[in-house]
C-alpha cells in the first residue's frame, strides 16, 4: 500500500503492529495450550480400564480382567461407534499368547498367535489366521496357512528393528490388507501402570 501522508503511514503501521502482535500472542497461546489440551496420553478410568483420546475424536480403550488373564482393546471412531475389538489371552509372564480380532459388528475376523524367544522372552513372531475360512497349507493340507506372518528382529543393543512382514494374499501389501501388527505394544498396563 502506498501513501503520501507520513502520519497516516505511521498510524497504519502502529495499528498493524498492535493487531499483528495480538494475533501472534493468540497464536503463541494456542501453540502453548495445544500439547496440554490434545496430548494423547492414557487416562485412568478405573483400576482395570485405561482410555486414550486421539486428536481426531477417536479413542482407544484397554480393559483387563481382574485376574490379568484377558486384555480387551476397543477402538472407537470419532462418531463413537466401535470400529474394532481385540481380545488377548495373557500368559503368566504378562505377555499375550493369542488374540481374536472382531469388527465393530462383533464378527470374528482373525485369530493371532504370538511366539516368544524362550531364553530372552522377546517377541519373535506373530501369525494371523483368517477366522472366516480355513486356508489349507499347500504342503500339508490339514495344517492352516496364516494370512500374514510378522518376524520381529532386534539389533545388537536389543532394540526392536522394523519387522519382516509376509502376506499370502496375492496382489496386496500386508500393510494394506491388515494394517500394522496386532501385538499390543501400547498396552497401558505394562509394568504395573
Task: Offer a quick outline of the entry.
The protein is an alpha+beta fold and 193 residues long. Helices cover 20% and strands 33% of the residues.
Outline the structure in words.
This protein has 193 residues and is of the alpha+beta class. It has two domains: 1-39; 42-184. It has two helices and ten strands, in the order αββββββββββα. The chain has helices at 6-38, 174-178, and strands at residues 42-44, 49-53, 59-64, 70-76, 82-90, 96-103, 108-116, 123-130, 148-151, 164-167. A ten-stranded antiparallel sheet has the order 1-2-3-4-5-6-7-8-9-10. Strand 6 (96-103) and strand 7 (108-116) form a beta hairpin. The longest helix has 33 residues, at 6-38. 13% of the residues are buried.
Amino acid at each position: 500500500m502506498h501513501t503520501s501522508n507520513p502520519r497516516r503511514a505511521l498510524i497504519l503501521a502502529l495499528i498493524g503492529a498492535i493487531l499483528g502482535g495480538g494475533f501472534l500472542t493468540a497464536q503463541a497461546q494456542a501453540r502453548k495450550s495445544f500439547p496440554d489440551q490434545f496430548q494423547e496420553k492414557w487416562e485412568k478410568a478405573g483400576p482395570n480400564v485405561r482410555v486414550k483420546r486421539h486428536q481426531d475424536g477417536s479413542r482407544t480403550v484397554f480393559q483387563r480382567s481382574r485376574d490379568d488373564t484377558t486384555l480387551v482393546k476397543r477402538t472407537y471412531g470419532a462418531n463413537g461407534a466401535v470400529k474394532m475389538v481385540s481380545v488377548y489371552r495373557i500368559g503368566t509372564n504378562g505377555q499375550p499368547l493369542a488374540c481374536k480380532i472382531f469388527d465393530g459388528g462383533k464378527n470374528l475376523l482373525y485369530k493371532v498367535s504370538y511366539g516368544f524367544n524362550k531364553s530372552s522372552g522377546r517377541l519373535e513372531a506373530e501369525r494371523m489366521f483368517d477366522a472366516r475360512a480355513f486356508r489349507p497349507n499347500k504342503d500339508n493340507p490339514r495344517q492352516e496357512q496364516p494370512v500374514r506372518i510378522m518376524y520381529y528382529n532386534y539389533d545388537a543393543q536389543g532394540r526392536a528393528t522394523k519387522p519382516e512382514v509376509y502376506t499370502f494374499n496375492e496382489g496386496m501389501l500386508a500393510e494394506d490388507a491388515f494394517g500394522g501388527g496386532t501385538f499390543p505394544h501400547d498396552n497401558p498396563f505394562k509394568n504395573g501402570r
